[in-house]
Amino acid sequence: MRRKIIAGNWKMNKTIPEAVTLAKEVVAATKGAQAITVICPTYVCLAPVNEAIKGSHVILGAQDVHWEEKGAFTGKVSCDMLKSAGVTYVIIGHSEQRSYFNETNETVNKKVKAVLKAGLLPIICVGETLAEREGGRTEAVVKDHVEGAYKGLSKDDALKTVIAYEPVWAIGTGKVATKEQAQEVHAFIRKKVLSALYDADTASKIQIQYGGSMKADNAAALLKQEDIDGGLIGGAALKADDFKGIVLA
Ligand code: PGA
Environment class of residue 80 by beta-carbon count within 10 Å: exposed (0-12), middle (13-18) or buried (19+)? Predict the structure, then answer.
C-alpha cells in the first residue's frame, strides 16, 4: 500500500514570522492526519520553520537545491545545508524552475542524485504545457522528464523518490485536470515508464502526486484515483484551513 503524501509548496511567499505562524497553524490543523504531511518554505524560512514544527507529524521540505557539495556557486544551497536546517524532502524540477531558471533534465538528474546521496528524498516534478497537450505530446513529454530524472538511478534509489505529475496548464490557473485526465497520466507513468525503467513491483511502490490547482473541494475525487498518491499544493497551501481540507481528504 502506498501511503498518501501531501506537500505544500509555498513558493516565494511568507516572511520568516509569517512562515512560522503558518507552520504552527498547519501542525494544529492537520493533527491526526493519515497522509504524510510536508511543508516547503523558502530557504531562509527553513530553520525557523523546523523549530516551529519540531516534535510534530509535519515534515520539512525545500523547494530546490544545488547538486555541488560546496564552493563558489553564489546564491546556491547544498544538500548538507538543507540537512542541517532539518529538511527531509526536496522538490526538484518544478515547472517554474524549468521555464524561468533553465532547469533541464540534466540538472534535474544531477540534483536527484545529489539529494539521494545525501540521504534526502526528492519530489521530482514532471508535466506538459498546454501547447504540448494540445499537440498530443503529453505522454512523450512526461516520459522524457521521467527518463531524464531517473537516468543512472538504481532500483533502491528509485524506491526513495516521489514523482509529482503537474500539468503546467493547471499550475496556479484554477484549471485543475479532471480526475480522468490525471489518472490517465499517472497510470502511464507507473505502468509504462517506471515499469520499463525498473519493474512492475518497483513501479507499484513509487508514490506519484498530482499537482496543479488542487484544492479542498477537488482533492478527494483526485485522491481516490488508483494511481494518485497525494498532492503537491501551491496556492491552497498558503492558508492552513485550505491545506487542512486537502490533507484530511
Ligand atoms: P498550485 O501550484 O496548487 O497553485 O496550482 C502547484 C505547484 O506549482 O506545485
Answer: middle
